Every structure is written in structure tokens, then in C-alpha cells.
Amino acid sequence: MIADKGAPAAGAGHRRDIDGLRAVAVLAIVAYHAFPQWVPGGFIGVDVFFVISGFLITGIIARERDEGRFSYLAFYLRRARRIVPAYVVVLAAIAALSWWLLLPNRLTWVGGPLAASGLFLTNVAFTTAYGYFTPGAQQNPLLHLWSLGVEEQFYLVWPLLLALLSLTALRRVRLAAAAGLMILSLAAAQALVDHNGSVWAFFLFPTRVWEFLAGGFLALAPKFAPRGPASANAAGAAGLALIVGSVALLSDATPFPGLSAVPACLGAALVLWSGIGRDPAATAVLRSAPAVGVGLVSYSLYLWHWPALIFGREYAQRELRPLEIAALLVLSAALAVATWQFVEQPWRHLSAPRRGRALALTLSPLLVFVALGAPMYFTHGLPARLSPSARQAAEIEHTDINPRREECFTAGRPVAPTGCRYGAAADARDYDVLVWGDSHADAATPGVVDWARMRGWSLREVALGGCPPLMDARPMAPKVGELKGCRASAGLVMAEIAADRKLKLIVLAARWPLYDGDTPHYDPGNPPIRVLDARTSGDRVYPLDEALTRTLAAIAATGTKARVVVLGPVPELTFSPSSCVAMARRLHRPEWRCWDAPASLPLVRARPAEAAIARALVGAPEVRTFSPSRRLCTETSCVTVLRRRLLYFDDDHLSATGARMLVPGWLDAALSPPAPALALRSSGPRPPMR
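RE: above sequence
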């Protein structure tokens, strides 16, 4: 996010078009974070920034080295004064707002990256501890600082390497070496993307350095400037078209970074090249006063906009309306201008007779955030900040869940056939009820256990995160790839069904809309999943109705006498009722506003999956289903609290209390005899319940 004055590669003065290019980059990022449905590829603004940084920093270092006046101390002092003051102000605001507003689970997620941010290792923290698509990352006010970590690591490594390449014996190969490193880095990024390592490729310096070197290559080759207005205009126009095209055509589902980032980076490099020694008409808009003005405050705007959006959502405890988002962006812009005027500018122009001391004083405030972040993380979010009643609601996500969740679900791998048994001897070879599915199946299990216990039946749970209870399914998450273990788990379950002659009931439960490709998706904390057909080569999408039809046929083919019930999708809310209640108690708001949720989005999301389940059951009249949305939602609202007990532990999973209150009734309704009119149309007698 550099804003250095000067055009090192050209040896000329301040380039207004670079400020304008920064404006394009930051506006793309801000628009993407605020309205991703309108600007699906706006995240490439970071890549544009990296190219600009590589161009400017490489030009400064190479020119000063070639002139024999480069100083590491002076270089790092300039970098620190440019980056650290605004960074410290924003980090302090984030730490204070997090302490005041965030509930313990959220504050825990902030603590680790906050400590890492004091060392400019935020990118490493998100890679190793969270991953880009976990809720802890997507709802973390520090997520955007990963790019500052990558940039600072570039500042540490590249000057040393460039010093080696600037030696007289190696100066002739300097340009070729930069090109070779760029190609190696790009190849490594693409290799990781191709092998389910997109999170690592996204966050880490070695797989991002090629973007800096794309700009650095230009800075090391000043003789390759445009030869005339025609070539400059063609390059500038093509560069802007590549950037705009990437913003419009890429999305979260695009494998990224790697080759998919090349057009945006090439576009940025072409714009930079077009302006070496010239002011082409094609990029005149970049030199306009508004563009330059936005470019000057782009660093501060980048720092402020993301935490403003995150804390706005946290305070409201719901998705923000467009006007509210717009207001937060205006606030971010005002803070950016104030930070540029009163923090960035004064610090950059301070005199520094003793550079070492000035550098130490500039960097020392960062250690405060290491000291602040560590207790947030290790105390699990400083829960003592909350009143007892607010803490009780905030901890429901850990206290009111399946009591055996850690054993049966969070291990992240299929549990052995003798595991996750309820009401059966440890050495029993069979059981009466099987609950099969993903995290929604795990959440529903306490209710199924109560229902089975009333009949003296034993139960077995098989639940694996992100794995639907479907045969031949390959769930694919963006930038992660195939979720491992799903197909193996399905095969083991089918073998158990075939072997267990005592089995009376099979309950298939899942977050069905997650696996239905045509279903609208609005959960920022969990990526949409594409389900592919494992029985075909290539990337054929596996429609939910077809997958469920095939699964029911496979169950029938085992010869089991067990009944099958498909529990339809639990309504997915736009907020977490437990967090809403905890926040209401913390901020002294009325709790009743958390007791129901608008039904429009939950129903729009549930209905396609319910229709797909209904289509799958047309050829299997003996299989029963129940749609929770029919019981929990009206056309206008969905209930979240019943008899003052929270039915959810987050925005889409039933709490253990909710499961015990609701699921037995759902099973009874599903298994009750059909109405006479329906019975007359039945294709045959219903197998008796054993």
C-alpha cells in the first residue's frame, strides 16, 4: 500500500497516474468488501498494489545502489515512517473496539492476529491458525492486514537480494534474475492452487513475490520505455481493460492466486510502463484531481474500511443494509483523510538526525499489540469483561451443543464403527438408529437420541464437517479443493447399513442448501460448496436431487429393513441468536428483538433444497421427509427462541436444547401414517416400524 513520491524507473518527478492507479486499486477492494455481488473480483486491487510497490521500491533501491548512496537504515526508516504511524492508530482503534464490542469467541479470533500484527506476521497467522474461509477469518477486523505482512516481508528480503544482484559482477544478469524469480514464484503459486493449497498461495510471501517483481522488472529496465504516444496509449488502455476485466470476471469461486492473477498484474504493469516519461491520453483519468486525491489517502482508506464494516455488522448483529454500508464507507473515507492529514504527513516529514534511534522509536509501539493480543487469545476472549447473563448467552456455542461433539464430530475424520454410540454396549456390533450427515446432523443428534431413548433404542452418529450424506459426492470448497474423507466416510456408512440387521431407522440430516448449487448464498463466514459427481471424470456438478436419489437407491440395495427419514434444511438465519442475546445483554438492549428473524432470505435459501429433496423422494414413497422451515417459519419471520430457550447456537445450527425440543416432534411427524388420501395414492404398503 505504498504511496512514495517519485517515479524511480524513469528518474522523473511525482507521477500522478500512479496515485490514480492506487485509487483504482483501493476502490476495487472497498467496493468488493462492501458489495461483493456487484464487484465480484475487486479483491485483485491488492495485486495491483503489490505491482505498484514492486515498481517503486525496486526503482528506489536500484537507483540509489547504482549511484552508491543506498543506506539500509535510511530505507527502513522511510518505510517505517510511511507504514507504521497510521497502522498503529488503526490497530489501537481495532483493539479498543474489539475489547468493548466483541464477544469472547470473536475476541479470541482477534487475539492471535493482533499479536502477529505487531510483528507484521498477520498473513502467517491467518495461514497457519485460521485459513481464509473460516468464520474466524471472514469476520475478523484484522483480516485485511495480511497484505501488509506480505509487503513488509518483501521489504526485508528484496533489498538484500538486490544488493547481491547490484554487484558489478552480477549487474548484467540482474534483470534476468528478477524475471527468473518472478516465474518461479508464479509457478509455485499455481502449483499450490492446483493441489488444494490456495490458502497458502494466497497468504504467503514466496507465492506473492512474483507480483512485486512484475513491477520491479519494469523498474530495472528503464530503457524499455514507450517509444511514442501510440505505444503508450495502447499499453495504458490495455492495462486498464485488464484490471477492469479482472474486477468484473473473477469471483470468490475463481482458483486464486496464480495464473488467474496474471491479467490484473499485467494490467497494472502496462499502466506503469505507459507512463514512463509520458502522459498518455488513455490514462488521463488516472491523473485527474479526484483520482489523485483518492490515491493519496488510499493507504489509510485501506486500513479503515474493513474494520468499519466488520464492527458495524457486529454492533447491529445482522447483515447491514446498503445505506448503512454506504454510511460506514463515508466514515471510513473521513477517517482516512484525517489520518493522512494528521498522522501520515507529519510523521513522514519529521527530521531524524539519529536514524537508528528514530527507527526504534517508530517501531516500538508495535510491541504493545503483541502484549495486547496474547491475553485475548490465551484467556479465550477475556470473558470476565461480560456480565454473567451476557457470558451465559455468549458461551452457548460451547455449552449448549451435542455433548459428544468433540468425540463424534470435531475430530475431522470418520469415527470407527464402534464409536459414537448412544445406549449401546461398547462392544455391540449393531444399533437401532443411524444419524448420518454433516455438522447439522451432529447438532440434531441430541434430539434424535431423546427420541430413540423413549423407545429403548440405541443410536450411532456419523457426522463429518462439509460432507453431505450422499453417495459418490465430491464436495469442493473455493481455494481449498475437495473436502477429504467424504467419499470414504460414505462408503463405510453404506457397509455398516448392509451389515446391521438390527437397524430400524436411518436419519439423513445436513445443511442441504450448502450442497445445492443453484441455492442463493449469503453466509460470509462459510464459502459455497460445489458438489461434483465422483463417478464421472471432469468437473460435472452433481445435482442434489440426483445425488439423493442415487443415495436412497444405494441404501435400498443393501437389503436393509430400516426406515429412512430425510430431515430437511434447518432455516439458515442472517444472524446468530445467541450472539444477539449476549450483545443485547452487554449493551442493555431489549432481548425480544433476537427472538425471531426475517424469513425472506432463510426461506429463499431453503426452498430450492426442499424441492430437490421432494423430487428425489418421488421414486421412493417409503422414504419420509420433514421440512423444519414449515414448523419454524411463517412467510415473514422464523422463530429463534421458544419458551425463552435459544433454539440455535449460531446462525444455522440447532442448539442441543433446540434439538431436544424440536427434533422428536419432527421425527414423529415424518413417521406418522399418511393422510387417507395420500395412502390411496401410495404405491404399496409402508414397512412396519420395528
